[in-house]
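thought: fold this chain, then report.
action: predict
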Amino acid sequence: MKWIVRILQGLVALDFLFAGASKIFASSDQIRELFTDKLGTPAALIYIVGVLEALAGLALIAGYRSRKAAVASIIVMIAILIGATVTNLAAGLVADAMVPFAILIVVLFLLFLKRDALKGIRRMAGANSSVSK
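observation:
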C-alpha cells in the first residue's frame, strides 16, 4: 500500500508541475486562446494559478519527507481543482470540467490515503495550542 501511495503522489506531483509550467511559460496569445477567450479569466490569474500549481507539485514531492508539505500541497491542489471545475461549469464547458473534476477525485483519494499524516498534524497543532494557553 505504501508504494501505491508514493506512485500516486508522484503522478499527481508531475501532473501539477507540468500543468503549472505550461501556464507559466505559455505566450500571451496561448493564454488568451486557451483561457481568456474561453473562460473569461484574466491572463494574470492564469499565470498566478500556474505558479501555485508548480509550487504545489514541488511541495508534494517534498511531501515524501515532510507530512506538513504533503498535506499543505494537497489542500492547495484541492482549491485549484475546485476553482477549475467551477470556472469551466460556469462557462458552460461541462466536458472541459470533467478533467479537473477527475483529478480532484484522485487528489481527494490521495488525501484519504494520507489521512494518518493529517491526524499527526492535528495532534501537533493540538499540542501547540495547549502549550500556548
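thought: worth noting. The mean pLDDT is 89.
final: C-alpha cells above.
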